[in-house]
Amino acid sequence: MTPSENWTPDQPIVALRDVHKSFGTFEVLKGIDLTVMKGEVVCIIGPSGSGKSTLIRTINGLTPVTRGSVQVEGQEVHDGNLDKLALRRKVGIVFQQYNLFPHRTVLQNVMMAPLLVLRENRKEVEARARELLAKVQLHGKENAYPAELSGGQQQRVAIARSLCMRPDVMLFDEVTAALDPETVGEVLLTIKQLAADGMTCILVTHEMGFAREISDRVYFTDAGRICESGPPASLFDNPQDPRTQEFLSKVL
Amino acid sequence: MLDLIAPYFERLYDTTGLNFSPFYDSYDWSRLLEGMLVSVKLIAAIVAVSLVIGVIGAGAQTSRLRPVRWCVAAYIEIFRNTPPIVQLLFFYFGLGAITPQVDMGGWYEPMIGSFGWAVIAIGIFGGSYNVEIFRSGVEAVPTATTEAAESLGFSNFKIFVYITLPLAFRFCLPALTNNIVSLAKTASLAYVIAVPEITYSLSGIWSDNVNVPEMMLLLFTYYIVLVAIIAKAMALLERKLALPGYGQ
């Protein structure tokens, strides 16, 4: 996807405007507005069932929206004419349950999409994949199968797999929710390095401490709406919305 | 080979009256080998046809077009709910009678012979089970896994070929083994339309030598060994394809 002609890097790289999503008669998203600039790290927090995962999945087109607009680099995502492949090159996603390909080794998992989808040169892809695996501290695990790894290791493979497509934006959907407290740290460290390298990251997370530390901006969602947003210091220390106050008083 | 065992079986016949004629008579020996060869070819062809039908049928079952799904459902109902021998007779005598004849230079032969009809009929019969077996495998592939491929830009076709199919095949392998073994045995029905497979060959031998019990024993042994080989091969395949650490 070439960026829309009107889009320049000083405009939001991801922009959601009045996004509504219903599953049957149940409205999960009730008008979401959210903008992310290039290089920004944005966390979305809120109680379970508030629509956080649905929200993040609309950004790479996995979940179609009922109404409203989702734009990535100025291009409308939910437009029948959109080149889905091009969108997915731009936007990587990492899931709660890792979702690695169980029949392929770690290295193959990372190499598969660039080889099959982008049809890139095998040698280049392999060099890049090995480099990424080393970066996420998985050197030596290249030939292991996903089920032979711990949850934290699998999640780091999933991150490397997404990065190997060289995306401009990374989405993280509760990526530490299925991990034990000890391994959470290693995955968060990987994301922190990524953010430090300037990757645009949008995270749905329940790790409040991490959200506070890493974010440029935090959004609090409840019942399909964004109740409050702002820099982490102000949102966590001085929440204005009563629902945010209530939620934070319980989890912090 | 025959030279080595012939003296023993000739003596066995002389002393006990047990007449294993294929093991000392070269004509019966060649009939036995030919029967085994045709039998193995027949089973291989039937299994191949049934697998192709299974994959295509399982794919068609997920079609967005309702008439396509209905056709697959009707096919499964018809061929699972009628006896394979009736299907075989239907194809051979019913459809065989209306298929064109080919000029062989002076005489005419049907375009599809008895071997061909046996492969078609029993292959289609076995395929109806394979469709359901593959479907169960496809359904066992987690949506989350295919979604991950989708989010990496895989097209639906690539998802099916590189993710769904390899996983579904592994998931349904035990059920598939059962059906392949069952088909290997069902292939012996081709006897009734005179395909010269092992049952047919041996029936020729026992008509000539009046050694029915001995040939029955031989037939029995042949199938036990054959099925044991198939089962072993499938078990090896299953072990080779096993995903390290998966499901433990």
Automatic annotation (TrEMBL), chain A:
> In the record, what terms sit under GO molecular function?
ABC-type amino acid transporter activity; ATP binding; ATP hydrolysis activity
Q: Which InterPro entries match?
A: AAA+_ATPase, ABC_ATPase_HisP-typ, ABC_transporter-like_ATP-bd, ABC_transporter-like_CS, MetN_ABC_transporter-like, P-loop_NTPase
Alphabetical keyword list: Amino-acid transport, ATP-binding, Cell membrane, Membrane, Nucleotide-binding, Transport
| Record-linked SUPFAM superfamilies | P-loop containing nucleoside triphosphate hydrolases (SSF52540)
Q: Which GO terms describe its cellular component?
A: plasma membrane
Q: What family does the entry list?
A: Belongs to the ABC transporter superfamily.
PANTHER family per the UniProt record, alphabetical: AMINO ACID IMPORT ATP-BINDING PROTEIN (PTHR43166), GLUTAMATE_ASPARTATE IMPORT ATP-BINDING PROTEIN GLTL (PTHR43166:SF9)
What name has this protein been given in UniProt? Amino acid ABC transporter ATP-binding protein, PAAT family
Naturally occurring in which organism (per UniProt): Roseovarius pacificus
UniProtKB/TrEMBL annotation, chain B:
Q: What is its main location?
A: membrane
Give the GO molecular function terms.
Answer: transmembrane transporter activity
Name a single GO biological process: amino acid transport
Q: Name one Pfam family in it.
A: BPD_transp_1
Q: Which compartments does it reside in?
A: Cell inner membrane; Cell membrane
On whether Membrane is a keyword of this UniProt record, the answer is yes
A single GO CC term for this protein reads: ATP-binding cassette (ABC) transporter complex
Question: What does the record give as the function of this protein?
Answer: Part of the binding-protein-dependent transport system for glutamine; probably responsible for the translocation of the substrate across the membrane.
Q: What is this protein called?
A: Amino acid ABC transporter membrane protein 1, PAAT family
**Species for this entry:** Roseovarius pacificus
Lineage in the entry?
Bacteria, Pseudomonadati, Pseudomonadota, Alphaproteobacteria, Rhodobacterales
